[in-house]
Write a sequence for this structure.
């Protein structure tokens, strides 16, 4: 029997441009989220990630380019697309006058879940977010992590085919962030298509099948994190610690060898190659290259 045709991508952007006056926030962006995959949109603040999310949810209209979500062309078919999407905004917009359960119930009406199914939908969302025992609590009685879990539960109440998360763990402490990672990874394992914008490198490495790195409104690299590391940073990195004068000397040697470097506070990292930079063999610490190296190289983001 012939192979079944591949499912169309959950999201497809081609040549998308968005301007705000003289500022071009998104500049010719190409992006694809395969059906059932988790794709990370990675970039520093101001790279255009949130603007891209706003266009995908029809909160902003592109000036040029093609946008398609779940087979629907935007902005014309945005209502049909939104009905099958779950959106987790960067900013908390929960209704603080309602309880946890009431916040979810409101969205069962907004998503037009049949009356006979609303109670089960709310119970499922509460269970996913581990908020069953807080169902009667007002939102302003919840911790920051609980509020983020409620935002995700609200986005899942109608069993969406696609979930878009804009900086889902921003401002949270590491322990709470790990809890949300487990929740998001569970969605990925269930085959839900996910687009997640983030500037947390470890978050992208742990959760995403592929990442698209953005800088100045455009995609500068896309691919599997491990493959991007091999392509742009090599397998090994060498770190030298010392005063600025020493670090400048190391950078000069590395540049003479044709190897990229990145400065981080009181250290310089030399990427690629099987050996340390010449003359600094005893001063170097060896480690594996990572996605953060790629990110800094491609976006120019200062890390200190």
């Amino acid at each position: 029997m012939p192979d079944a045709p591949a499912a169309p991508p959950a999201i497809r952007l081609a040549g998308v441009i968005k301007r705000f006056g003289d500022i071009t926030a998104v500049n010719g962006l190409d992006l694809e989220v395969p059906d059932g995959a988790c794709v990370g949109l990675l970039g520093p603040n101001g790279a255009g990630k949130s603007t891209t999310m706003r266009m995908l949810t029809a909160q902003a209209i592109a000036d040029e380019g093609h946008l398609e979500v779940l087979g629907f062309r935007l902005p014309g078919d945005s209502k049909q697309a939104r009905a099958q999407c779950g959106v987790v905004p960067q900013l908390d917009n929960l209704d603080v006058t309602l309880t946890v359960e009431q916040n979810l119930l409101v969205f069962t009406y907004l998503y037009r879940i049949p009356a006979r199914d609303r109670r089960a939908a709310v119970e499922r969302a509460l269970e996913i977010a581990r908020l069953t025992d807080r169902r009667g609590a007002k939102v302003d009685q919840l911790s920051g992590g609980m509020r983020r879990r409620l935002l995700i539960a609200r986005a899942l109440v109608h069993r969406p085919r696609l979930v878009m998360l804009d900086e889902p763990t921003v401002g949270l402490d590491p322990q709470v962030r790990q809890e949300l990672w487990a929740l998001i990874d569970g969605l990925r394992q269930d085959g839900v298509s996910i687009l997640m914008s983030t500037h947390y490198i470890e978050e992208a490495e742990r959760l995403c099948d592929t990442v698209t790195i953005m800088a100045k409104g455009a995609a500068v690299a896309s691919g599997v994190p491990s493959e991007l590391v091999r392509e742009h940073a090599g397998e090994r990195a060498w770190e030298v610690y010392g005063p600025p004068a020493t670090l400048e000397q190391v950078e000069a040697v590395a540049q003479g060898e044709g190897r990229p470097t990145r400065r981080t506070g009181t250290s310089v990292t030399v990427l690629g190659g099987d050996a340390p930079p010449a003359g600094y063999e005893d001063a170097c610490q060896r480690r594996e290259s990572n996605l953060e190296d790629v990110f800094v190289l491609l976006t120019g983001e200062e890390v200190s």
